[in-house]
Amino acid sequence: MKKIILLICFYFGILSCASQAEKSSSDKGISKIENGKITISNPELEYEVIIFDAGFESWLQTRGKQRGYYDLAYLENKNRVWVNSWNSRSRAGKAGYDYTIDYHSNVNYGFEVNYMLFNYLLYWQETNNIRLN
């Protein structure tokens, strides 16, 4: 159930992004972690993604790579591949992939969103013993 809620939050959070936003080198994204709720927002791009998963919070603190370990281009490439795989499985009706993730490679979501999405998808793969690529 918490995965469904998380996916809904990702879906509506990413959906609220302007799909025609221009690429920009600046990232004003902010992440806030409180009691199992992770909020990622950027007022300039008008997005907010909320993750409700206490397991992800502890995983991110212990196993997630530090910011700056991967560059933005790497995160965007991995997210594009993993989201495409996720969405293909979702459209095929596979269990556990109840919703598609609305992620567009031509939108600059900034470092924070790409960092958190990358880490969440990595966490999801590890905890479910499934590969997305």
Count of folded domains: 1
* DSSP summary: helix tally: 4
Number of beta-strand segments: 3
Strand order of the largest sheet: 1-2-3
Order of helices and strands: HEEEHHH
The dominant shape is globular
Give the N-terminus to C-terminus distance in angstroms.
24 Å
Quote the average pLDDT: 76
Low-pLDDT stretches: 15-26
Approximate strand percentage? 5-15%
Helix-strand makeup class: alpha+beta
Gyration radius, rounded: 14 Å
Helix content: 40-55%
What can be said about the biggest beta sheet? 3 strands, antiparallel
Protein name: Lipoprotein
Signal peptide: 1-21
Keywords: Signal
Pfam families: DUF6146
Outline:
The protein has about 130 residues and is of the alpha+beta class. About 45% of the residues lie in helices and about 15% in strands.
Would you write up a description of this structure?
- Residues 1-21 form the signal peptide.
- InterPro entries: DUF6146 (IPR046144).
- This is Lipoprotein.
- Keywords: Signal.
- The chain has 4 helices and 3 strands, in the order αβββααα.
- It is α+β, with helices and mostly antiparallel strands and 133 residues long.
- The protein has one domain (2-128).
- Strands 1-2-3 form a 3-stranded antiparallel sheet.
- It is globular, with a radius of gyration of 14 Å.
